[in-house]
Amino acid sequence: MIKRIHHVSVAVRNLEEALKLYEGLFGLRPEKIETLPEQGVKAALLPVGGSEIELIQPLDPNSGVGRFLESRGEGVHHICLEVGNIDRELEELEKKGVQLIDKKGRWGLVGKVAFLHPRSTRGMLIELVQTVQERP
Fold first, then answer.
1. 2-131, superfamily in CATH?
2. Global confidence as pTM
3. Region class of 21: left (phi > 0), else alpha (psi between -120 and 50), else beta
């Protein structure tokens, strides 16, 4: 069951420049900045009300986010929906015919994450997240 929109993710070429822009325009400061080698990005979370904006910079131009930037430029990369139990949600979605990028949750910036293929969601990359305070 979907709890809320956790964040909207924006692909950027330079994280530090993007952070300066979001702070200068909107007064938003990062709550968390982390390099995620397994996802190929450096990411920052900017709290906005009950949700967040995530800025992601690719670590490698040949990564998924790097290829996204090359073909589409900077902009919205995906939306993230918070769920209570990610693995159960993935099982249910697969039963409904959704094409999954991840069949099980894996560790991300704020908990267990998994992605749904845009072919199953009208062209939008959707991430699911089950938030946890810290990795076990």
1. 2,3-Dihydroxybiphenyl 1,2-Dioxygenase, domain 1 (3.10.180.10)
2. 0.93
3. alpha
